[in-house]
Design a protein that fits this description.
By secondary structure, this protein is mainly beta. It contains 1 helix and 10 strands, in the order αββββββββββ. About 4% of the residues have low confidence.
Length: 193
Amino acid sequence: MKTNKIAILLFTAAVASPAVLAESPNFNYVSAGYLDGDIDGDDADGWTLDGSTLLGENFFLSGQYQTVGNSDDGLDVDLNWLSAGVGYRTAISASTDFYGLLTYENVEAEASYRGNSASEDENGYGLSIGVRSMLSDSIELDGRLGYIDIEDESETSITLGARYYMNKNFSIGANYTTIDELDLVSLTARYSF
């Protein structure tokens, strides 16, 4: 419930805030950073890579790879998640874009405990919609609601993010994603081109 209220507030702020002289969000970028995760109540950490590039004016390609893991009392857990797809963006104001995304999803989970190990490698798809808005030349907000279906199990995801642009090409940002019993917080550096 608390996450839903935050999502609604960020969405409202992104759409309703005046963006004086701000350009529309840039969909051409690569970024990398640190991931802090909570997997069913257990702390985990790792890293993330992602990128996007426009194909013409409205269509874009998107890809993301995330890996998190933890080791606690002889139990090692690793989660690797690949998401790649195609999206469509359209301007809803001079500084705000609405977008949709269709993705291929691959999740690989590995667990080992004192010499015994198990792993799963599952595939599926994702659908998401979101809003990206430049509140100013240096501040961007991003909110996304998603549906993920992997091996006949479906979950709803919520992602909220904010970025600070030091200049037109370089920015730092933070994202929060929640899916069922998985929470991920990322701190990333991005190069936009």
